[in-house]
Each structure stands twice: as C-alpha cells, then as structure tokens.
Amino acid sequence: MKDLSRRTMLKLGTAGFAGSALPVLASANETACKASDGLCNAAVCIRAHQLLSLVCVLGGAQCPLIEAGRARELLRRLGSDPTTAIRLMSPADEVPHYTKLVQTERAAPDTQEVLNRKRDLDVLQRLGLAPGDTRRARYLYELLFRRIETLKGLCAYDTPGWEGCALAKSGAYERVRAKGWNAIVYLRSDQEREQYRRRNVQRIEKTTRLFVRPHHLMCLSCWYAGGKNKAPRPNDTLFEIWQRIRREPDVPITLVEGTCIACDCCDGFHPPNGRCVHPCGLIRDYKKDLDVLQRLGLMPGATMKARELFALLFQRIRSTREICAYGDGIERSEEWRICGGPDGNPGYAATRQTGIFNGVH
User: Fold this and answer.
1) Number of folded domains that form the chain
2) Are 274 and 33 in contact (CB under 8 A)?
3) Does 177 fall in a domain?
4) 179 and 260 fall within a common domain
5) How far apart are CA 293 and CA 257, in angstroms?
6) Of 139, 158, 183, which marks where a domain is finished?
7) How many helices (H) and strands (E) are present in the chain, helices listed first?
8) pTM of the predicted model as reported, rounded to 2 decimal places
9) Percentage helix, strand, coil, to 5, in the chain?
10) Same domain, yes or no, for 195 and 289?
11) Which residues of 252-271 are buried (b: 16+ CB within 10 A; e: fewer)?
C-alpha cells in the first residue's frame, strides 16, 4: 500500500479498507462483471460542493457542509474503489418562482443554502460538468485537483454577508491536494501491478489466442512507429503482444470490447471489477473500440490471424485521425480528448507503411 493510502487508513480507521489491500489475482473463471456498475448507475450521489468537503475532512477539518459519518463512509469507499460512480447533484435549478415563496422566505432566505447552491455551480463550472452528471471517482479527483487549487472564492469570500466557511482558509484542502489525487482515491501499488504483469506475460506467451480490444491494435502501431520503438511499456503489455505476433504471425487474435489482455498491469485497471479508471477509459476508449470494429466490419468476438487482422486494419483505417480524432480533429470536451493529435499520429502512419511483420516470413 502506498504511504498516502496508509495515512488515509490511519486517519479514518481500518473498517471499509479491505479493497486497499493486494487483491487476490483473478482466475480465468472469475465471475463476469455486473452490468449494474456502469456509469449510468451511480453508486454515490452527493452535492457538487461536497467533493471539496471530502478533501477538507481528509485534511483534518470538521467541514460543516457534510455530516461527519457520511464523510468517513465515502472516504473509505473511495480509498478502496476508484471506479465508484459519483453523481453530482444540485438543487440550483429547483428554486421556485418568486410567487411560490412565502413573504418570510423572500425577506430572509436560507443564506447557507444560497451559498451552497453557488458552491455547487462554481465547482461544476470549473469541472465543465452539469448537475446530474456522473463520473468515476478517480476521474473526478484528478480533474478537481487540476482545476481547483484553492478554496478562495469558492467556500469563502471577503464580501460581507458572504463570508462562508471559516475553515476555507485553514489549508486543509490545499494540504491534501499537494499530495495528489491518490491521497483520496485508491491507486494500485507498484508491487501488485508487477505481479499482474508477470502473470500477464506468461498468459501472452502460452495462450492459444490473444484477446485484444480493437483500438489497442492502433495503440500498438503508434508505439511501434515503423520499427523505432521495441521496448516494454510501463502501463501495458503491448510490447509482449508485439513480440508474440512477430514470432507467430498466424496466432489468432480475438477482438474484445473493453479491457483486455494488455490492461491487467495498468495503474488504471481495477482488478475486482475489471474496469478502466483512466480519464481516457471513462468513455473515449470504448467508442474507439466500436469505431474500429465498425470500420473493420467486425463484431466483438471476431477472431482472425494476426497477420490478416493488421492487414485489414491498415487497409480500412489510414490515419488515427479517423478514430482517435473522431474524423474531424475537434476536441469537444475533457472526456473526448484527442489522442495522437488532430491530424493523426505519425507513428501509426509509419507502421502502416512498414507493416508489423516486415522481415517475417
């Protein structure tokens, strides 16, 4: 367990942190992931401003904007499961028409709730989201810490009547942020990842067929760059897949929709449910898989010899612009960031020229 995760456990107690320990290596007959843990099925619903509250509580502040027991419960969950789907709520658009308010509500509004509605919308605006949006825990806290450096102007102001939370200037938020998103959301240890890598490499060597998600064929091609790169990659086993198919061009590859044989050692792969928690894994890479399948005229589960599959790939997809830049090179939001540049990755173009199997007979 990383030091930051250990400190989190000591601060909150050990209950609820079972998922932070090294998971048992998954077996081949492990139960399939439940469909109910997708992004449309939020595991947690909180007010948008309470993303900040959880950080402050972890930083040692007794935040008045979230109940202490609830905060501890949520921190325990995030400390063990980075795939937790969080729906961000706000009643800002539920404020009734002024004629529906009684006179006392017009003259003396609930000032704390007014401040909270503003906090909700300030946080959502900084994140580029809207009330009701649902994202994975790791995605939210990576984005939060990139875009919100301090609580000044969010939880407290110098304006009389808008002073807000007295703890906003305590430094609690900033202290946790300085440690990084993995101070609050679980991150796999290097030791665990190495165990999965060793197992994964053995599987790639011995399996009668390789199970690969379609867009990873393009990732492998971009990395190979026409022969310029031939070394292991830290966050996947695409190099090992390349070695296998170079030795055995006719080894079968089965295309799978979602995480695959190359993913198990990635810091963004969560073994208990097989989900990807990298920002690119939120939805973008799933679209790439389906776009590649459509271009190839195949469906998940289709199996072809490696040599034939790459020949079809290079025939049907001329540039990463067609898949990874959505065909038009326009980046519409954080979730739909372009990979490899709007005009296409030159590494893919080089490999398409040379082929994967040049010199192989």
Assistant:
1) 2
2) yes
3) yes
4) no
5) 9
6) 183
7) 13, 8
8) 0.86
9) 50, 10, 45
10) yes
11) bbbbbeebbbbbbbbbbbbb
DSSP annotation string for 201-227: HHHHHH-SSEEE-HHHHHHHHHHHGGG
Distance of CA 183 to the CA centre of its chain: 16
Same structural domain for residues 175 and 305?
no
On the 0-12 / 13-18 / 19+ scale of CB atoms within 10 A, 233 is: middle
Residue 303: closest CA among 250, 361, 263, 356: 250
Query: Is there a single domain that holds both residue 198 and residue 252?
Result: yes
On the 0-12 / 13-18 / 19+ scale of CB atoms within 10 A, 75 is: buried
Q: How far apart are alpha carbons 337 and 219 in whole angstroms?
A: 15
Confidence check: pLDDT of 251 > 90: yes
Query: How confident is the model over 31-57, as a mean pLDDT?
Result: 85
pLDDT in tens, 155-167: 988 898 888 888 9
20 and 73 inside one domain = yes
Give 273's Cβ-side CA count (13 Å radius).
16
Residue 83 has pLDDT above 50, yes or no: yes
> Is the pLDDT confidence value at 361 over 60?
no
What does pLDDT average to over the chain? 89
145 and 89 both lie in a single domain: yes
CA distance 324 to 252: 25
Beta-sheet strands, E only, within the chain: 44-47, 85-89, 134-136, 210-212, 252-255, 269-270, 275-276, 303-305
Structure tokens at 179: 């440690």
Query: What are the residues whose beta carbons fall under 8 Å from the beta carbon of 134, sequence distance 6 or more?
Result: 39, 40, 42, 85, 86, 87, 88
User: How far lies 93's CA from each of 40, 65, 118, 247, 280, in Å?
Assistant: 21, 20, 11, 61, 31
Grouping H, G, I as helix, E, B as strand and the rest as coil, residue 329 is: coil
Domain contains 361: no
Asked if residues 280 and 215 have their Cβ atoms less than 8 Å apart, the reply is: no
Query: Which one of 156, 183, 210 terminates a domain?
Result: 183
